[in-house]
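Q: Joint fold for the lines below.
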Amino acid sequence: MTSQNSRNVLGVVRPSGERKRPNPPRHVPPWAWAVPAVLLVFLARYVAAVAGGWYAFTDWNGLTPTANFTGLANFRQIFTDEGARGALLNTVKFAACFVVLTNLVGLFLAVALNQHLKTRYLLRTVFFAPVVMSQLATAFIWRFLFDYSGPVNGVLGALGLESLKKTWLANPTWSFWAVVVVLVWQFSGLAMVILLAGLQGIPQEVEEAAEIDGASSWQRLVRVTLPLLAPALAISIQLSVISGLAIFDTVMALTNGGPLGATETLATQVYKQTFVFGRYGYGTALALLLTILIVAAALIQQLTTRATERRNA
Amino acid sequence: MKRTLALLSLTALLASPALAQSGELRLIAQASEQGNPTMQALVNAFMKKYPNVKVRTEFFPIGTGYPQVLRTQLQGGNAPDLFYVTAGSGGQVSVLPFLDAGYVADLSKRPWAKTVIPTASRGLYWKGNQLAAVPLGMTPIAAVYNADLLGQLGVSIPRTMPELLKTCQVIRSKGKSMFALAGANPQNAGLLAATLAENYVLGSDPQWNAKRAAGKVTFAGTAGWKKALQTLLDMQKAGCFIPGVEGADLPQAAPAMASGQALAFVIPTGAISALKSINPKLNLGAFVLPGPTAASTVLAVSPTDAIAVSKNSKNLPAALAFADFIATGGGSELYTKATGDISTQQAATGKNLPPELAGIAPALTRKNRVFPLIQIEWSNPQVYTTLGEGVQGLLTGQLTVDALLARMDAAWNRK
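A: Joint structure:
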């Protein structure tokens, strides 16, 4: 019996019945396959976002079929309303604390776990684990920890520090820091992973050369490691700036923006005004402001990083 | 002859309302972590009576989850046939804004329309000559208390606010608290303030809401409102509330009452079943939150839970049959019996109440001393939320009474 199969240049056997697939016509550009997907993303994300943005200039209540154009009235209200201004200020404060603290803690963890510890893989997993946990679920656990009758006050009481016991989540000052603690606990692991990847890209010889030249550990960190870590640090900072400005779940579950707006952010205000109070127009204006803030912060950070890189080059 | 008789019987059967309706309905409502067994029981009873109608239920989380889903479905053209609403216009799922927006069917032509809603609450469901929903029952707001703990503490039920403040101090000296309160939950914190306002505002001026709507009075300019909120601060000073009240939410406050750390909880009596689900052994009673004097004390009772029929229901006859079932077919009785709410008949007479509510029976029949909840006629949900969040601000010392009332006026005027 004669074999009906044929073998191509790569050695792949093609059954005789299978026809050779014709080459695509040469006039179709190679990127054409991506057009439907790009179009879908463009329509579903960008066109929808821009179309939604129009509501920022209306008084739509989410129920009526029509919306009245009100110009910049919603934006004027944002800057004259005490609650909205407080939310804007809190957003910036949260973002600043979030960026600084998550990256500092992340850097500390990355440097520490870049050493040849026997348990380094286990510890990396432990510190990264909170990142992949549900923000809502963890916030409810922290809520239990911070409760007046909860373990935090319980430990303080057991240590004889009764005077330090507080209603952490309802204290106008401490509620802000309670939220920051939870955020830093949850997201430092992400900064750690990014920076750890950066650290492992630094050639060992450079560190060793600095050590031979007599540089102390601190000098090696500041003069050698950190400059070489700059690209990874830039990515980590950029991500934390964006996340820090859009903080929502943790605040909602921990404090619901309280007490009396002490932890309110633009994102929580967007949700409350839009979905709780049915002020879709005003809520969209807040969302637009938040978007502009995030884009501006990301651009500034990007330009600053490039300028630094050019100076260092 | 047999065949004729059979045909006649079949015709008679099909002519009965229970079999005339058929098809499928979709009902959406809010639910707690335990679901909404009461609403499901109501639906099951309806399907038993109308075997040709299948009602599919969908429950969404209480709080902001359900209002968001409801609004999205109505706005998106995917309206359910039947949906849970509350009365008036001051809440997140208040029915009158939905009527204004053209989403609910007018029920004014139903045979029960003129009789099922008490005159005092008519404005909460009627707008012009349109009826927006059918109420499921009446909800008194009362201090629901642990009767066994009351005996153990050796105190008696306070009849006036000065008595209540003294009782708080006695109870605190025994290591317990008079009231559980979710100070960080705007709905629960607002409810206590609103119940105090029933006594201090509506007690002396029953038309206050109408005057506020007409712009003739303001929150900040009303002495009764200042007294109500000052009383709340007096209660805090007297140690009436659980420790850490300003940071407590419902998961902390309800167990505090159910476990015997606090004597009472000011709640809609419809929440009694939820308290009993935490501790089935609770022996509960209820008393009216007192005003400055026993004579001036009023009780808040109004229809709140209700069902609206979608204007665009594809099976309007069956949906209307569901509304009829609630109003006159035994649905309301079934619902109120399960929740701890009361029927309009029970509210009017004070008779045949569940044993837990026996303590409020005399107050129910006091002429001109029973009012709907003060907040359900307010202009928008933000006013009540401002009050609720403001109570937390008062408890933490972030806000003064005058500043909170000014905020409420600002929220009232917001569109």
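Q: Anything notable?
A: Residues 8-12 of chain A have pLDDT under 50 and may be disordered. Residues 48 and 216 of chain A are 55 Å apart (CA to CA).
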